[in-house]
Design a protein that fits this description.
Keywords: ATP-binding, Metal-binding, Nucleotide-binding, Ubl conjugation pathway, Zinc. One of its GO terms (biological process) is protein ufmylation. One of its GO terms (cellular component) is cytosol. By secondary structure, the protein is α+β, with helices and mostly antiparallel strands. It has one domain. The protein is about 30% helix and about 10% strand. A two-stranded parallel ribbon has the order 1-2. Strand 1, helix 1 and strand 2 form a beta-alpha-beta unit. The two termini are about 20 Å apart.
Length: about 80
């Protein structure tokens, strides 16, 4: 929905892969099975709005190391390198 509304940048975080079991509740397509969810989502969102800037992070944000990076991205990952 945000991509359709013309938002300038989306930052995606997930560590999982698309599985056929995901098809009934998410916007993934069967041909995307096996791809990382962030990569599959970015490709789909780009088709919806090629002007949106997409930044993907394929990791679990709940580990200590990754959570620190997640917070850093929130502080500096905005459209103009500011907070999100």
């Amino acid at each position: 929905m945000l991509a359709r509304c013309g938002i300038g940048k989306l930052i995606l975080f997930d560590y999982d892969k698309v599985e056929l079991a995901n098809m009934n509740r998410l916007f993934f397509q069967p041909y995307q099975a096996g791809l990382s969810k962030v990569d599959a989502a970015a490709k789909t969102l780009f088709l919806i709005n090629p002007d949106v800037e997409l930044e993907t992070h394929n990791y679990n944000i709940t580990s200590v190391k990754n959570f620190k990076h997640f917070l850093e991205v929130l502080k500096t990952g905005g459209k103009n390198s500011g907070p999100v």
